[in-house]
């Protein structure tokens, strides 16, 4: 249970800025996901928390204690590697006991604590198996157990699900979340998969090009993205952004979308905007003010994704599989409720 | 595109029709066509060994004027092997070779491992130093033998350096004292082959997964603990391979020993290879030599088999 | 341009039944997906089509002709490898040309053919670049172009986009679908991602332990799975399968006589006022919300649209969308609803 504070944290590699001026506080016992595409600085941040990298400037504090310069072995940080870094030449038991032995814990104490953690993670029947050739969910549990047994104050997880089969990811996600609830440690989770971040994290820190763009609960970043990058990155598919122009008429404000029609909005100033709406916020409406042509229909079980185009606009719409949809090449008429519209400045790409 | 499509398709169809039941025959034909080559390879590999077996059962020598294939006229059965078992010079050469191996290989291993540990992490000048360390390996063994012959002359640089440190003239007769001669030849072998050991072990060490080492550090493991529990166990395979290569190579040691001492003084540095060379070239009793060669081949095969077995169990 | 059929094909590797008595019909111009967990036999099927493996029993037909004894080169089936296997020292154009140049085809024809394929794949503007300078999606298209340039009768892909990140995967699968429709050739596609399979395929086969458990369009398999296995493989979160004893708690009264378990997809489980189940967790995904529920200790999942306000610990009542209940017998086989 430790609070992590990063202040003005930055890292340069030669002339390349991997991370610029990061200010982030991760509360004690909180599960925070660092989310972004590859090269956004999320792994650099995590490696600096772990002590594998030294920051170029700024500071990291654990519960107020300055961590800059403290070697990684002394930080009390548990790290779960992307490929788990299990010692495959040892048994499961020796893997679990590794950290305790390294710290010179007495033998009976080691046996007790290894036994406890193995029970908790349901690894007891496997204790004397060689760690090579274990299935990936067991490797994950073992990697977590190996770090957890030395009771680190902070858990860092570096894309632990990226090598896992799609079918298995859902299982592993809920298992990970359940484990976090049991351990109640501060967890920092690095991922490029917004679904993992949305389903597991208490708060998400969205990053791009070495910058922290937004921090908030999953629903905050989903509902109120600060810029177009966050809007596009969060959600599956991400938010639709169409170039338009706000005009006022006697009926109120509307956004003129050219070939795609128009849409009434609640507030805004005249001028060019990026008109944003979530694919799930679309209502099929034969009298709706917007119309686009269906280019592709993706039927994925419970959901149907329509890919739409009109002029230079492209958009996606997510509907229930129960909803009747037009065929490829046909027109789709719809409306977006004014409350669901998000407007962005086309120059700065910031939310208006 | 369309005309090409139809053309290609047409061709594919014709092929498909004629090819339908060709596959099995094709495979059989392949076997027949490669059979001569396969037989040739087997012949080339086995012929020298079979010839050795044949000659070792005779008293044949090239001086007798009988072609080798009529060596059966001098058939003596297992007499060569009986002689070999009772030849003290053979046994002493074998024993000496084992001593050389017992010193050279562990020393080369430890030095190579130490160097590998130093070189696994980057430091300024690493690349230059790395190339320098590999130089001895590239020197022709005969040249290396000559170099060490010069170094260990009683008026040579080794004695000069010792004189400098001792503060008085040192004139050790390195190559004419039986014990010191063996020491000097062993030093030359270690000089020449430690780099190979270093190279193999470094390759093994570099391939130890970095994240496992990181994981161990984060779990609080000291350098020694990591070395014993992660690095060495992960290098097991490569260590066995390195030791096996050097043991087999070292058993055959010849060039630098022969050039430095000619196996002397007396037989003080006479290894198995030198012994065989002398018996072949100087005494020309080829049937006997064949018997020695076979005996050694059997010993080396056993060593290799043990190493391979150990490797399998490790993996 | 080619249909591919398997007739009772079996392939063993030692004691392992990699492919177990498989019969399949892949239609001409189909986008056909082989779907299943790792090691369920999908990749072996590809090798059998390519001719890299020979079936131990049964027969494979391409365009109705048995090809068991036809060599891989003569089958004229192309493969796009998972790692794409582009030549790093050549430009995209040289990579694409390679199969034709190797066959000593007339240069004019090569240019015409390359122009045709690259236009359809929308990669005309990147042809001068080496693979290292291309994005993941572009490399993918170059690899496909190289496979298609020699005009194969069918082409195969083994899990081609699993290495891409989530967002790019969503876009690439739509792109693949478009390419297949434009090229109009039989595409056999292996994946273990159910969403990807349902998105791209117009026909699919679900594998388990080397056996085909069910074939059909993705929609058929999703709506009418023939077993609990197929039901569990498609859909995320997976279908809830509970003992029949719990059916009354979800207001499911009518059931076939031999029904042993009840299956309800999370999106067909309605949550309302009541006191039957407890909410264990609320997973807000933005456009959807997934609820983890406990019905007398049995875990259930429900997917709701939007961001309804529920909190963990709350008690709720459950119903099932009419006509959306699935029933399975004791062996896990689907039963027709009464």
Please explain how this structure is put together:
Chain A folds into 2 domains: 4-86 and 134-233, Rossmann fold (3-Layer(aba) Sandwich), CATH 3.40.50.300; 240-344, OB fold (Dihydrolipoamide Acetyltransferase, E2P), CATH 2.40.50.140. Chain A is built from 8 helices and 20 strands. Chain A has helices at 42-50, 92-102, 107-120, 136-148, 166-183, 194-200, 218-223, 228-233, and strands at 4-13, 16-26, 31-35, 57-62, 65-66, 77-80, 154-158, 186-191, 203-208, 211-216, 240-249, 252-256, 262-264, 271-277, 282-284, 290-300, 303-310, 313-320, 331-336, 342-344. In chain A, strand 12 and strand 13 (262-264) form a beta hairpin. Chain B has a domain at 88-284: MetI-like (MetI-like fold). Chain B has 13 helices and no strands. Residues 1-22 of chain B have low confidence and may be disordered. With 338 residues, chain C is α+β, with helices and mostly antiparallel strands. In chain C, strands 6-7-8-3-9-10 form a 6-stranded mixed beta sheet, sandwiched between helices. In chain C, helix 3 (92-102) crosses helix 4 (107-121), helix 3 (92-102) packs parallel to helix 5 (136-148) and helix 4 (107-121) packs across helix 5 (136-148). At the B-C interface, helix 1 and helix 2 of B face strand 5 and helix 4 of C.
What is the topological layout?
The complex is a heterotrimer of chains A (352), B (315) and C (338).
Chain A: E1 4-13, E2 16-26, E3 31-35, H1 42-50, E4 57-62, E5 65-66, E6 77-80, H2 92-102, H3 107-120, H4 136-148, E7 154-158, H5 166-183, E8 186-191, H6 194-200, E9 203-208, E10 211-216, H7 218-223, H8 228-233, E11 240-249, E12 252-256, E13 262-264, E14 271-277, E15 282-284, E16 290-300, E17 303-310, E18 313-320, E19 331-336, E20 342-344
Parallel strand pairs in A: 3-8, 3-9, 6-7, 7-8
Antiparallel strand pairs in A: 1-2, 1-4, 4-5, 9-10, 11-12, 11-14, 12-13, 14-20, 15-19, 16-17, 16-19, 17-18
Helix pairs in contact in A: 2-3, 2-4, 4-5
Chain B: H1 2-19, H2 23-56, H3 79-85, H4 88-120, H5 126-138, H6 141-151, H7 157-166, H8 178-206, H9 210-218, H10 223-251, H11 255-261, H12 272-283, H13 286-314
Helix pairs in contact in B: 2-13, 3-13, 4-8, 4-10, 5-8, 6-8, 6-11, 8-10, 8-11, 9-10, 10-13
Chain C: E1 4-13, E2 16-26, E3 31-35, H1 42-50, E4 57-62, E5 65-66, H2 72-75, E6 77-80, H3 92-102, H4 107-121, H5 136-148, E7 154-158, H6 166-183, E8 186-191, H7 194-200, E9 203-208, E10 211-216, H8 218-223, H9 228-233, E11 240-243, E12 261-264, E13 269-284, E14 288-295, E15 298-305, E16 315-320, E17 326-328, E18 334-335
Parallel strand pairs in C: 3-8, 3-9, 6-7, 7-8
Antiparallel strand pairs in C: 1-2, 1-4, 4-5, 9-10, 11-12, 12-17, 13-14, 13-16, 14-15, 17-18
